[in-house]
Write a structure and sequence with these properties.
By secondary structure, the protein is α/β, with parallel strands linked by helices. Helices cover 47% and strands 11% of the residues.
């Protein structure tokens, strides 16, 4: 089975595919190490980490760069490409082909626009069709933002747009912002493709979403926002003289994520780093396996 076929099959399992969304190599590598076999990216995380707003079509090169660093991970990678960073079908198809050539198995393509409106469904369908014509093996998750943007009659709008995008060749439909059980049930029943929803803390859990017919659940920017919140809270606790838990990943653990990636690249026949960099990373990762006698593990 190809990686693309494996990813498609993951949408038809007994439980929804839980897709955690990473924003850099370390977060994706840590998720892979925790046993997640499919990982997405979060456009908010990618944009915010570089001082840019999400959804403004400003992160095309950063998105491709991130995909390149994730290619060697032992996980199926799907990439959030916002609205494709263009309204030109050929440009969007070329971007998708570039990502597929890197080893990416899927893309999210959203119809929400930077001005808070929805893209013309015909234009969005043309982008979907262009991607599938160029790379038919790439899983296109067509996202419609009728709920996310608070439009009138979001359910009816989502269903109508989903039908257009599926006719254009989309493999799945993502409807972020849909949280009411009855709406989700209707979406799952009416959309003739795997339904993807966004996990909402305090709302429906995986088992409940499975019972409603959901095929895929994304965490979106939740992990990124949680990481920032935890970092700020830790700094505040140190400032206030309060104890801080010591169960975080160690310096060596995080360094090993990079070391593993270097050698995974080498095993794949690529040379992402010089031998000197690889050796340096290996030496710095020594605390993972026990520091040499007389040397304290690094923590910074």
């Amino acid at each position: 089975m190809t990686r693309a076929a494996e990813f498609l099959a993951a949408h038809h399992g007994p439980r929804p595919l839980l897709l955690p969304n990473a924003w850099d190599h370390a977060s994706a590598a840590a998720l892979a190490a925790a046993g997640f076999t499919a990982i997405g990216t979060t456009s908010l995380g990618v944009a915010a980490a570089h001082g840019l707003p999400d959804g403004a079509a400003a992160t095309r090169d950063l998105t491709v760069g991130l995909a390149r660093t994730l290619a060697a991970l032992p996980a199926l990678i799907t990439v959030d490409i916002e609205g494709g960073f263009s309204d030109d079908p050929e440009e969007v198809a070329a971007l998708a082909a570039t990502l597929a050539d890197l080893g990416v198995v899927g893309v999210n393509l959203e119809d929400g626009r930077p001005d808070g409106t929805l893209r013309d469904p015909g234009v969005h369908a043309a982008l979907v069709a262009a991607i599938k014509a160029r790379r038919p093996d790439l899983f296109v998750n067509a996202r419609t933002d009728s709920y996310w943007l608070g439009t009138d009659r979001p359910l009816e709008t989502a269903l109508a747009r989903a039908a257009r995008y599926l006719d254009a060749g989309a493999d799945g439909v993502f409807v972020p912002g849909a949280v009411a059980a009855e709406d989700i049930r209707t979406l799952a029943e009416e959309i003739e493709a795997p339904l993807n929803v966004l996990y909402a803390p305090g709302r429906l859990g995986l088992d409940e979403l499975a019972a409603l017919g959901v095929a895929r659940v994304s965490t979106g920017s939740l992990l990124y926002r949680t990481a920032i919140s935890a970092a700020v809270d830790t700094a505040v606790q140190v400032r206030e003289g309060n104890p801080v838990p010591s169960d975080q990943l160690s310096y060596g653990d995080v360094q090993q994520l990079a070391v593993d990636a270097i050698f995974a690249e080498a095993d794949a026949g690529r040379t992402p780093a010089t031998p000197g960099i690889a050796a340096r990373a290996t030496a710095r990762a020594a605390p993972v396996h026990g520091a040499p006698a007389g040397r304290a593990p690094r923590t910074t």
